[in-house]
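ENTRY TYPE: protein
CONTENTS: sequence, structure tokens:
***
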Amino acid sequence: MEQKRENPRLVVYGCGGHGKVVADIALARGLSVEGFIDDGVQAGGRVLGLPILGGAAWLEARRSEVRVALGIGENHARRRIHGLCETLGLVPVTLIHPSAAVAASARLGAGVVVMALAVINPDSRVGDGAIVNSGAIVEHDCELGAFAHLSPNATLGGTVRIGALAHVGLGASILPGKSVGDEAVVGAGAVVLTDVPPRVVVAGVPARVRRETKPCPPGR
């Protein structure tokens, strides 16, 4: 599930705040991080003392030499970069912080990041490119969809389903057996007592629909 030590050349795609945390996880695992890739930042600078190497063109030119970790927090952008990696024949690495607790029976897809003090309990499934952020809890038999983001200290009760590209905010709680639809957003601190439809924003205690969101084209 993690970057193999025999290939030390790891680059992190994205040099913003989320990318910093991803790089720090890799370093905590004892991996060698060569630097960052970012399409919106000029090459030559440094972040955490590591160089910004270039953008997508740099990766394409060196795709046979490196492995890539996804360092982008925004779900749709992370899906796009995951797709770029696949086009180049690269499988994004999955990184798990040493302090996280991941059950042996849990299943994690490619490009997943599990941050410090997070918990993923037995028979849960985490889809490609998903984020389980610092201190978040995924209870038994949950499903976290591809490119979803479980924010710091958010909690999923047992058998919860979170759809693809959904975002569960800081400290939010989803009661056991409930579901959150694709591309839905659960606000910080919300408590979800009933199923959340796709592409809506819910907030409050109990969580209620505040507005709808527009679906994002797959290419974004």
